[in-house]
């Protein structure tokens, strides 16, 4: 039985790459039907890879701006090319920052409103289940996921934000996760529940096609009971389901996932 292959990219300064590989291969394991493999930032060929994760960390020491230099790494050309063809790409925290700097998602990350590094679990509400990374959740579901960043204060010009939110009202939504209160209170109305000041209280955002998603919280840090939450597991299960369905639709042998 074959599993779909997820490439997990390591840039100089990435520090969550092994955690993501562990979450996919061990925590999610057979349930997701995925196999995570490390991909070096100098790699320019992604053949045999069905999806990519850009993990969190401090690529290039956050020099200039978080993600600014990593966005120019050779692997990002390949990621951009495959993303245009519809390959699922997930950027987690620093990975989200890299996707913004690479122009694969709109907007930018500013320093947190508090001008401090914030490291704690926060509630987020699932706003869209129309992405390869969220389809196993329920719309409106409140998840508890850890954040750990200094630059998570999402910014987009009003026009762009309007487009993002407009798309959110009709399916498919582009706001994927939104910061909220413990009972799902909307952080746009209750700003005390917006940890970093992000525009629209956006915690995760998709491109118009829905295959490229940036997420500030860390699902890999909430994929095992002993970590305090398994709410992140749905990300890997969603991706496994999505790739398996794609494979079935293409008339390829069922297997549990993607590539032979
Ligand atoms: N956990 C991370 O990926 C850190 C992200 C980023 N370097 C920041 O502090 O904003």
What does it look like?
With 260 residues, the protein is of the alpha/beta class. The chain contains 5 helices and 11 strands, in the order E-H-E-E-H-E-H-E-E-E-E-H-E-E-E-H. It has helices spanning 17-28, 74-84, 94-101, 158-169, 233-249, and strands at residues 4-10, 34-40, 51-54, 89-92, 108-110, 118-126, 142-149, 153-155, 175-179, 202-206, 212-215. The chain has a 9-stranded mixed beta sheet, sandwiched between helices. It has a two-stranded antiparallel ribbon with strand order 5-8. Helix 1 (17-28) links the parallel strand 1 (4-10) and strand 2 (34-40). Glutamine binds next to strand 7. It is found in: Cytoplasm. It catalyses: L-glutamine + H2O = L-glutamate + NH4(+); N(2)-formyl-N(1)-(5-phospho-beta-D-ribosyl)glycinamide + L-glutamine + ATP + H2O = 2-formamido-N(1)-(5-O-phospho-beta-D-ribosyl)acetamidine + L-glutamate + ADP + phosphate + H(+).
């Amino acid at each position: 039985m074959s599993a779909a292959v997820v490439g997990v990219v390591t840039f100089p300064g990435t520090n969550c790459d092994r955690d993501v590989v562990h979450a996919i291969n061990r925590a999610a394991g057979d349930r997701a039907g995925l196999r995570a493999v490390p991909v070096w930032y100098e790699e320019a060929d992604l053949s045999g890879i069905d999806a990519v994760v850009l993990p969190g960390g401090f690529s290039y020491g956050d020099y200039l701006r978080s993600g600014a230099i990593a966005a120019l790494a050779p692997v990002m050309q390949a990621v951009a090319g495959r993303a245009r063809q519809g390959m699922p790409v997930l950027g987690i925290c620093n990975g989200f920052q890299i996707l913004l700097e690479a122009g694969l998602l709109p907007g930018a990350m500013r320093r947190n409103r508090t001008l401090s590094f914030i490291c704690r679990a926060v509630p987020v509400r699932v706003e869209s289940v129309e992405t390869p990374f969220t389809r196993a959740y329920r719309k409106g579901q409140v998840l508890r996921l850890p954040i750990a960043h200094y630059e998570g204060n999402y910014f987009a010009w009003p026009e762009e934000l309007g487009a993002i939110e407009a798309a959110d009202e009709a399916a498919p939504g582009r706001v994927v996760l939104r910061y909220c209160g413990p009972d799902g209170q909307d952080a746009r109305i209750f700003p005390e529940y917006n940890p970093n000041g992000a525009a629209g209280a956006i915690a995760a955002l998709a491109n118009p096609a829905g295959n490229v998603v940036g997420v500030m919280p860390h699902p890999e840090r909430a994929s095992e009971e002993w970590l305090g939450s398994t709410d992140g597991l749905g990300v890997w299960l969603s991706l496994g389901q999505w790739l398996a369905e794609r494979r079935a639709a293409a008339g390829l042998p069922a297997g549990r996932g993607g590539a032979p």
